[in-house]
Amino acid sequence: MFKSIRYGLLSTIVMVTLFATACGAESTAEATQEINRIETAVAATVAAQNATQSADSPATAEPAFTQTPLVFSPPLTPLAPIASPTLPTDTTQSKCASASLVSETIPDGMVFKPEAKFTKTWEIKNTSLCTWDTNYKIIFWDGDLLGGAYYYNLPQIVAPGQTFPISLMLTAPKEEETYTSEWMLQTPDSTEFGVGQYSTPFYAKIRVSAEAKPKYSVEAIDFTLVQDPPSGCPANINYTVTATLATTGPMEFTYYWIQSDDNNSSPKTIKVDSATTLTLTRSWKLHIATNTGTRWFILVITAPEYQEYPRVEFTKTCGG
Fold first, then answer.
1. What is the pLDDT of residues 292-320, one digit of tens each?
2. What sign does the dihedral 124-131-139-167 (CA atoms) show?
């Protein structure tokens, strides 16, 4: 309806305009008045039409644009966090925690005056597959601390197969007694390990004495046996035993070897000016025709105090 009124108004205005143009200026003035009258009438009609339409059906306002967040239906479920992979717990233990003792200073049982300071050094070999850095530690394990700290950082980087020194400055206690200080290594993830096949601690063992002339002793460190040649059945086979000993101070001692065939060595005397480490050897040659079987050596210290060490056995398997 509203559109029809507008179209009628337009047609009327066009007709009046054409008539005015044809009749001249006077007629134009009259035409203009007529157009104004028509527009007023149409405006009133339109207003009445809008009022009627509003009464019949209320107008719906157009919604204003607002920026609202996106909403998903159904709502999205957050992704569960992905767990980090669990690394094997024995990686360090199996690959990095392996070492061996090559040598050491300060023989076991060495005698010190009360509160004497000394430096103990162990030569340790990295037998693992890892390079040790300064985050590895030397830790006190058991026994007597002997004035040291409870742990030390490794002083240098050690590659696999490399040997390095561990030197600790220690102090003898006041009381006259025998003391043992045990130490271990520790990886950055706190895995403790020692030396050798059974990962045992490396240690310092001392004796404290205030005597002007304390009693010194001979301490056994190791016994090894070598067969030459190592295999086969040659005409002659040599078996050689080596005893590694340590004296605890300046002393003189006498020793000899006992053999299972009663072919014992003659007694020998050794004098040392200070605590030291030394080796003693004994060889036994057997011919191919000699009976097979198990034989043994025994080292015996006769002075200053009698001491007999465990036998070292070997078995001949050729000939006889």
1. 999 999 999 999 999 999 999 999 998 87
2. positive
